[in-house]
């Protein structure tokens, strides 16, 4: 049987990785602010359905993506209010959010199954798209692939160079110190949570509008959990999230390609390898830094300003 | 504006009141949801909360089923609560539950068709060992390298799920099952079965174990040195260190107990109600148990009640689905709302509301 | 006996007598493993049930429950349904097998029907469709239509049902096109649109131009449509919205006539446990319209094959057929018996790759 063309494989990986890339990037910002939101799956699937409904009713994929981001942000604020103002436990609330989101999306989606989303066109970038071979592979995707890439750069620059990014990181490293300096810890965290929700929503909508593209119950099928793993794997760094997303997405696509090409692959071993790799990365990081993990110090801790 | 002021001790009144208020609010919001779906809201609420307990047609069967459904939730949640109290976050109970089931079932299947009392005993040990071993991975990594146990235990859930799928179609597949995935049915192999102990009560060994775990946790937390160490570490890790608490030992013990209990829950489930290792054996008990642990405020008695409440919404929800034609998703949203309200109102036990003039926050 | 129970039984008696007065409708229960809008297996059962309900109207009372996990939860759902007075309960997933046998033993007066299982009892019947007959027709079309001589097959779980389909379509494709090669991609899921789309893309990227699927979503159809010159077949449902291209035909599960027949038997009191395994001939497997994308002579061949199978003149598993390792399975002219087909767990000669164990 034929061998696998690496360029074609790369193009497939770029598409397959976009949903987890978006969701993981959002969750990374949330976690950098010291909040652990395990509800990524619930926010993704909410984005998938509201994005689909908006795009289907209006005929505009763009409107679909915008709505998905808003929907994801809105449902994430449920988590935000509960954990930040009512000081509920983040782990439990995140899990409850996933349950709620899965139910809600399936309720909204009852009359939308089996329908087709309006087509999201592939971009044709002048010059770049016309490059031989590379142009077809790298520069003829739909706009969201590039939006996701731009967001990686944007988030990286925001965290590294802007004052707001510095404040966000400070809140994640020590909320008491940030509070003492006069920063509004809860507001910062709420913004981060909403941003994370918006990106998870976009990731979900990418599934229902581009990759599949139609609505089916439970269609995220665990992508949100993979995004969570990815953030850890990337040790909370934007470009590593990108690399990790392409690696995670790459393993699943490669696995299918190897099967299609007729190679003998232990499929179950490959499908559990991303998670084992994540654990390994975690151990290496924490061993090397003698316990000072790359994780934001306040991850998952409740903040309450004592007067 | 309203501010929250931390109470010196949790309010006893609100500890009792919040779950009741939360259930009431959920009933109101749920009724609105069901009305929007064109169903009689009162009837829907009654079907979910009342019929499983008191409807003459179902109650005799549903009431024991509450125990069957709540048993594993309580057993897992009790184990988790010990660690959670000490600030040790095992959120991979689902993986430990699956590994307990796999290891325990493997012992039973290896013994097939020997008919001896020790088969089931060996399976129990297998389940205990499987769950404990799976939890020891994050525990040892945490102790040796300070690796974050939340993330490692979560990752191991996915690994366990993949293992489960490969076991169901591979090593543990029923050789007489016509090539279909899934193991032999353990509930049809008397030496390995975990049947109902007293007919019509729903009590099987897993439920018994859950009750024992509740008592055991209660005693440990209130009267035992370990309980003191757990509570002290949870309140102030530094104080605990000065008091001579060995942090590494506590991590190993807490994760070990929670993994072991989750593994037991898996074993009792696979040999009893579920009957066999199948691809979708892992039904999310491990994650739901985290919610149960928090709903029960990490208190053994609270967890017992929270587990029963969760079970009630599952069973009542099933009844509402086929009696009233409510979609499964509406029930899921309803459960989600209940959890959200409970978590939201919980703040009132530890904080009191105060009006105060606006000042720089 | 407390007052409460006396009252309760009085109410029950009362409601029973009024119900009997109003010509007690037969209560029919259905349990699905997935949501009723999954676009595939469960949805198709549900739609057939709706047809059945339309046929009977008020003569039956229908209760349905979707998304019921296999195992302990299923057993409870069946029991509660039986307690609620159901006269017949249809369990539409393989994994309900042991629960249904357990519950049936407790309710000897309730009839049970289990789809795709093999365990029967006095009050438990089983039914399934010979999908492999349809797969053979698809295989012929695939072998004729491929230009790259590579056809792809998206498999779900490596169980006999799926392996039968792979073998049946490969054998027929090979007959009309000796150069054909088939790639099988196993997904270990019945339903995961994103994964199915990726699998279809992977096959297409590897030069496949005909994709068969044994998973339930329409994602592979859409992927093929985007890719262009790729042919597909509808699965479970007709998926006519993808005709004439990429979908050139389909295998349709036709459950409604069976449901009508069996429910009628319950109403008439003539129901008996059965073991139904019907194919194209009995109308349980439908071949969706072959579109104009297929040349007329190929279409005629495919229809001839379909009719020959329906008439019982031709069996897709007729020797000589060798196993993958080259050993003889069926001698010249020998036809596979149902027992061997039910447990089929090996590839036929010519297929590459291993069945995952």
UniProtKB/TrEMBL annotation, chain A:
PANTHER family: ABC TRANSPORTER PERMEASE PROTEIN, SUGAR ABC TRANSPORTER INTEGRAL MEMBRANE PROTEIN-RELATED. InterPro entries: ABC_transp_permease (IPR001851). This is Branched-chain amino acid transport system / permease component. The chain crosses the membrane at residues 6-26, 38-56, 62-82, 94-113, 143-159, 187-209, 215-234, 241-258, 270-287. Keywords: Cell membrane, Membrane, Transmembrane, Transmembrane helix. One of its GO terms (molecular function) is transmembrane transporter activity. It is found in: Cell membrane. It comes from Aquimixticola soesokkakensis.
Automatic annotation (TrEMBL), chain B:
GO terms for molecular function: transmembrane transporter activity. The keyword Membrane applies. It holds the Pfam family BPD_transp_2. It is a multi-pass membrane protein. The chain crosses the membrane at residues 12-37, 66-84, 96-114, 120-141, 150-172, 203-221, 242-268, 274-296, 303-324, 330-348. The keyword Membrane applies. CDD domains: TM_PBP1_transp_TpRbsC_like. Keywords: Cell membrane, Membrane, Transmembrane, Transmembrane helix. GO terms for cellular component: plasma membrane. This is Branched-chain amino acid transport system / permease component. It is found in: Cell membrane. InterPro entries: ABC_transp_permease.
From TrEMBL, chain C:
InterPro entries: ABC-Purine-Binding, Peripla_BP_I, PnrA-like. Residues 26-297 form the ABC transporter substrate-binding protein PnrA-like domain. Keywords: Signal. It holds the Pfam family Bmp. Residues 1-22 form the signal peptide. The keyword Signal applies. It comes from the Bacteria. GO terms for cellular component: plasma membrane. The keyword Glycoprotein does not apply. PANTHER family: ABC TRANSPORTER SUBSTRATE-BINDING PROTEIN. This is Purine-binding protein. It comes from Aquimixticola soesokkakensis. The lineage of its organism: Bacteria, Pseudomonadati, Pseudomonadota, Alphaproteobacteria, Rhodobacterales.
